[in-house]
Amino acid sequence: MPFCPSCGKPVDDKANICPECKATITPAAQKKKSKLFGLFNSLFELVLDIVIVLLILLAFVYFILPWMVDKGYLPPIQGLEAFRPRT
Fold first, then answer.
1. Short-list 87, 67, 80, 2, CA closest to 37
2. Residue 36: how many CB atoms within 10 A of its CB?
């Protein structure tokens, strides 16, 4: 679905005028806005992927690493006490 180049609202494929802001819509302007929207969408997905990776790393450091030390899979790590949950 194309977007209005002035207000950014979605418009009908065959519309020549935006129903929201009454701006004239040309086919080239519709494609330009939709490419820009695709860029923002890709950037959002990249940021979301980075946040997910950071959360997984944080979970590893906070939960799995102390468990592995307690079970003897890893030698004691200096400073790990700061990550142990308080009981």
1. 2
2. 13
Question: Which CA distances in Å does 46 have to 4, 35, 50, 51?
Answer: 25, 17, 6, 9
Q: State the Cα–Cα distance between residues 4 and 11, nearest whole angstrom.
A: 6
Question: What is the Cα–Cα distance from 25 to 4, expressed in whole angstroms?
Answer: 7
Helix (H) or strand (E) holding 52: helix 27-59
Q: Give strand pairing partners of 10.
A: 3
Q: Note if the pTM is more than 0.85.
A: no
- Read off the pLDDT of residues 24-44 as tens digits, 9 standing for 90 and up: 877 664 555 556 666 677 888
Distance CA 83, CA 62 (A): 5
